Amino acid sequence: MADTPSSVLVASCREASLALLERNLTPHGILAASPTEAAVARRYTRIFGRDAAICVMAMCGSGLPALEQGAVASLDALAARQAANGQIPKYVDPQGHDADFWYLGCIDATLWWLIAVHHVRRHGAVGGAHWAREVQLAIQWLLAQEHQHFRLLQQNEASDWADIMPRSGYVLYTNALWFEVKRRFGLQHADATRHHFNHLFNPFQRDLPEYHRARLLRHYARRGRRDPGLYLSFVNLSFVGDEGDVFGNVLAVLCGLADESMAHSIVRTIGAAGAALPWPVRVTLHPMNASHELWRAYMGRHRQNLTHQYHNGGLWPFVGGFWVMALAQLGLQDQARAALHSLAEANAHGDWRFTEWFHGKTLAPMGMAGQSWNAATFLLAQRALEGGGANNGW
């Protein structure tokens, strides 16, 4: 059978993705983006905890010796600069001289690092005890931030991947990853984490939580709102996020937190909003403007998080890879294949620029070129489809 234009583009994107990861690899690990002048100025020429961990899962299993070795080197570089209390840095420089932990602390680098460690232990050339001390410390640091009844992590605002967004308290994205860490490492109270995840972030269901503080938070979260067909992006004492966090919801599907009904509701809601058109995927369904009650002055920093930009409604191809994986996991193979083709188009834009993000309305390319995790999640998404969705790729 002759190759179709779609299959040719997907194959080309695979080759370009592997080549980009090799170009962005240093002896100490994978850089967040290609070392352009702009990337150097914004410190994208660092080994980021979340970026590198996502790239590690694509590099490990690639069959390319340089990438296989680079996966281990990336995790080693982050482990070498682990804080005494167990926290994995937001980023380290390739020479290991600098480690950054962000303004209010970066919580998700530690989560992603642990997920990547588990992946490399299973699929790479290291033993099951590799990084044992560092893993124990990292888990201990996370447990210190877990609510002792909800069994969910608590965090400051602007301290996860959406690091200039006002999500705080119990954050959807962070706790989807926390459940995944618990599942992979066999940690205690995973069932309680799942239970309270579904009651706090989906307060519109009929099932009432037993814990009285959970009932109160449910009451505050529901007040004046309709069921959006999604999990809330965060829940705090007296305010919540209903802007439509696509990444957090997609992770809830991939991590097995959403039951079948909720998972399909999430996919329908994101699809109906056109968030995956023409390329996957916009990360906020209802971007905030300066008059929104949750708007913060820092969201205008570098003019990045204005409406339809950056975390506030920008289109991020790397999240698009997770979208494809979620579709594949739900058995929506035709949709997943179409989305993978669209994702290849996004990465190819600008002569294979691998653009960090696009304006959510105009589709103007913004952010850095040569973004490593764009390449990584494309490869993970393709891997998920080749496995028929049974293995979600990561």
Task: Explain what this protein looks like in three dimensions.
There is one protein chain. This protein has 394 residues and is mostly helical. Helix content is 47%, strand content 5%. The protein is built from 14 helices and ten strands. A three-stranded antiparallel β-sheet has the order 3-4-5. The protein has a three-stranded antiparallel β-sheet with strand order 6-7-8. Strand 4 (91-92) and strand 5 form a beta hairpin. Helix 1 packs across helix 14 (372-386), helix 10 runs antiparallel to helix 11 and helix 10 (246-254) packs parallel to helix 12 (317-329). The protein is globular. The two termini are 30 Å apart. The mean pLDDT is 95.
* Separation, N- and C-terminal Cα atoms: 30 Å
Q: Based on CA inertia axes, which overall geometry fits? A: globular
Unreliable segments of 5+ consecutive residues: none
Q: Please report which band the strand proportion falls in: under 5%, 5-15%, 15-25%, 25-35%, 35-45% or over 45%.
A: 5-15%
Largest sheet: 3 strands, antiparallel
Within the largest sheet, what's the order of strands? 3-4-5
Using only CA atoms, what is the Rg?
A: 20 Å
